[in-house]
Amino acid sequence: MRHQIGGRKLGRMQGPRLALYKNLIVSVFRYEKVMTTEAKAKEIRPQVERMITLAKRGDLAARRTVVAELPDEPLVIKKLFDEIAPKYAERTSGYTRITHLGNRNGDRAPIVQIELL
Length: 117
Fold this sequence. Notes:
Blueprint: H1 14-31, E1 33-37, H2 38-57, H3 60-69, H4 74-87, E2 96-103, E3 110-116
Antiparallel strand pairs: 1-3, 2-3
């Protein structure tokens, strides 16, 4: 039984699944909106919001935590700390929005757009 085991597997093994999450998170910060499936968007939303909360703190420990999760993306990290985090200074949570766009033609998977508010 899968009691208290969170997260979606998305039909992938652990390594490719974590790489997919990392790439989607980087894309959300780089382009500020991404079209993807509903399951993938719901899976990365808490991670995106947690990184924005860390960036709002702005101290060295928060920056090192974000760098540890996105080690090869210095421009995205700079944008997160310098542009995105100050935009949400007065907001305590709810930095993202998931908008339903319909279903994909090939397999009828629900397609959504996850964007920063």
